[in-house]
């Protein structure tokens, strides 16, 4: 049976092919859409390219100026934040609402702390507050530079397989992520993404008013445990903490309408859809 999510993502990728740009001596990928409205910078997690946000881009491209990025094959959190600041200037985005998920959420926090003059709003999604002890946990505990890439990819497969067993209703998104881990993300990029957290810096202090900070979390996120979610909120003190009652680590893929609704709220846009659904909670 065809995978609806993969087919829809592939359709989007044909209409919006990833562009490449050299920034800071590294080659970034990006998808750009929209020519008016507030600027939105989207940063994916470890398993995702720029087009992982395809549903949000399609819903908002007529009302916002959107740039979603794909990580380069080198560098880390510090270098990437610098590159993204330069990219914002080269694409004439001005001040941006920066949303990052997972690894991207860590990069987004570093970006906002380092470049507050470029940051209109920070949305830290399904992410962590510190890289302390990351290196002791799989897959980061592996020799990421020298371990066979098949072993690293297999590790993702085991984790995703366990999530599929626990949540068979999310089989389509798991298949999409398996394809990313299995080769859609080239080996050098995958190693670099993992090393970015393993060797990453601790986050500098954030100097943004709390009304310009939001967090997103999932009650059933298998990768970000409750104590880490609490620590993210405690560190950022957001004005709004969005909580998905279900959606795992990828609510923007499996619950796109609600994700678009919260982005509309954060960007100050009129809500185009039905807004908030049953069972969702916003904590202020």
UniProtKB/TrEMBL annotation:
GO function term, MF aspect, one: hydrolase activity
Cellular component, GO, one term: cytoplasm
All residue ranges annotated as the AB hydrolase-1 domain in the record: 40-261
One Pfam family, short name: Abhydrolase_6
Predominant location: cytoplasm
Locations listed in the record: Cytoplasm
Keyword entries, A-Z: Cytoplasm, Hydrolase
InterPro entries assigned to the protein according to its UniProt record, in alphabetical order: AB_hydrolase_1 (IPR000073), AB_hydrolase_fold (IPR029058), Maspardin (IPR026151)
Protein name per its UniProtKB record: Maspardin
Provenance organism: Microvirga tunisiensis
């Amino acid at each position: 049976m065809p995978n609806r999510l993969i087919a829809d993502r592939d359709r989007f990728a044909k209409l919006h092919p990833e562009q490449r740009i050299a920034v800071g001596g590294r080659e970034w990928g990006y998808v750009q859409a929209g020519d008016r409205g507030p600027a939105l910078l989207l940063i994916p997690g470890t398993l995702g390219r720029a087009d992982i946000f395809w549903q949000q881009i399609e819903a908002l491209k007529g009302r916002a100026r959107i740039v979603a990025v794909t990580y380069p094959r080198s560098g880390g959190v510090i270098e990437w934040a610098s590159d993204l600041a330069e990219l914002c200037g080269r694409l004439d985005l001005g001040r941006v609402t920066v949303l990052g998920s997972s690894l991207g959420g860590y990069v987004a926090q570093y970006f906002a702390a380092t470049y507050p003059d470029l940051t209109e709003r920070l949305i830290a999604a399904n992410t962590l507050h510190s890289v302390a002890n990351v290196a002791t946990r799989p897959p980061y505990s592996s020799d990421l530079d020298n371990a066979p890439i098949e072993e690293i990819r297999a590790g993702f497969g085991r984790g995703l397989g366990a999530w599929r067993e626990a949540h068979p209703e999310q089989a389509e998104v798991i298949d999409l992520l398996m394809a990313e881990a299995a080769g859609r993300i080239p080996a050098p990029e995958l190693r670099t993404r993992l090393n970015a957290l393993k060797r990453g810096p601790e986050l500098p202090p954030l100097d943004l008013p709390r009304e310009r900070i939001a967090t997103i979390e999932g009650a059933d996120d298998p990768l970000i445990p409750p104590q880490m979610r609490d620590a993210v909120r405690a560190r950022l003190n957001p004005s709004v903490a969005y909580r998905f009652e279900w959606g795992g680590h990828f609510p923007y893929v499996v619950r796109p309408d609600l994700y678009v609704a919260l982005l509309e709220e954060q960007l100050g846009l009129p809500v185009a859809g039905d807004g908030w659904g049953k069972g969702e909670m916003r904590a202020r």
